[in-house]
Amino acid sequence: MKGKMLIVLIIVLLLAYILIFYSTLHLKSHITELDNQIENLRRENRELEQTYLTLTRPERIEAIAKKKLHLVEAKDFYVVELKYK
């Protein structure tokens, strides 16, 4: 009887070990996948920051304003203060 109990206990422990082992492998795989996603998002973020810096350059905005919106740079201007009663 003790021999059968010992065999059952060993089988249960072996099954538990196998379950834990495969769960660990699955988690490691998932962690690797998440690490890759993080790296891809960091790369995309760097690219978007570079695009933002390019698009918001004052020289670029001024050129677009002149070419597409036909705006001109003010030469001289005056400020007139009006008082309202």
UniProtKB/TrEMBL annotation:
Entry annotated with the keyword Transmembrane helix: yes
Gene encoding the protein: ftsL
Transmembrane domains' residue ranges: 6-25
Any single GO BP term: cell division
Membrane topology listed for this record: Single-pass type II membrane protein
Species per Swiss-Prot/TrEMBL record: Caldisericum exile
Cellular component terms (Gene Ontology): plasma membrane
InterPro entries documented for this protein: Cell_div_FtsL (IPR011922), FtsL/DivIC (IPR007060)
Any Pfam family matching the protein: DivIC
UniProt keyword list: Cell cycle, Cell division, Cell membrane, Coiled coil, Membrane, Transmembrane, Transmembrane helix
Subcellular location field: Cell membrane
Coiled-coil intervals, chain numbering: 24-51
Superkingdom, taxonomy of origin: Bacteria
Protein name per Swiss-Prot or TrEMBL: Cell division protein FtsL
